[in-house]
Amino acid sequence: MKRYLGTIDYDGRKHVEVVDYAGDMPRQLNATPQPLSERLDLLRYVARHSNEFFTWGKLTAATYQLALAMIADATKDRAIALTWHQVYARDVLAWLDEAAPWWISQGQIKEWVRQQVNSSFLEKEWAKMPVPAQAC
Known about the structure:
This protein has helices spanning 61-75, 78-91, 106-128, and strands at 2-8, 14-22, 25-26, 34-35, 102-105. By secondary structure, the protein is an alpha+beta fold.
């Protein structure tokens, strides 16, 4: 199971790293967090000249890029990431404290996606159901 760690360096730049865990311990005790890939191959929100690919605590292009990268990494599913990243950015990442570090587990991301997919499926099924005639 992975954890995504949002940190802020001394210059105020934000970084997101990934640590692979086995239970509560990193898989390797000396495991070094790896930077989260921006996944610019899927979709690019941030300008080429920007030095801020990720942010949280507000809704910007960098927040959308972070949501896309996190869902793509957690689920390994491009279609899911492209479908749900904007909602994840709005519902989860925009609400994080902009000035504080945080962590989110891979399991939390997968559960959020599962709930969204199930909710979307039910809405579509309900829309197909005929409306019963009202009794007079």
